[in-house]
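Hi everyone, sorry if this is the wrong subforum. Our group has a chain we'd like a structural model of before ordering constructs, and none of us has done structure prediction before. Sequence below.
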Amino acid sequence: MNAVRTLLIALIFIAPAADAAVADDHAELERLLHTFLEATNERPIHETFWAEDLIYTSSSGERFGKAEILAGFDEPDAEGSSPPSYGAEDVTVRVMDDVAVVTFRLTADEAGKRVGEFFNTGVFRRAGETWQAFTWQATRIPDDG
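Answer:
Right subforum, don't worry. Here is the predicted structure as tokens:
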């Protein structure tokens, strides 16, 4: 009987600590996503956001990895073009131990006008003290959707 009582008491204290850790992970992943989207035109953010073994499936159906994303920073920008600003809406974070799935609606705006929306899913794994995306899927939302 003492063993059962000890187990119940331990569970009373462990469960809230586990819930707090998951809540911290949710907040960290959402913060990471928003930080990434605010600085998506900066190479250092991509170097840390993406895992080395990333598989990225674009909205056009192309697959590539982190090396291809980073190589894009070596290409000259088109003269006079300004990149869109990105945001995330309807963010859902699901944490399962050291893996998490983040789904959201990606918004792209240029000069205050909405130019695109995408459903995105990122699968992250804990990498030391932070998280890195190792799988990414983007699907363009039709203009009438």
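For your construct planning: The chain has one domain: 27-140. Residues 2-38 form the longest helix (37 residues).
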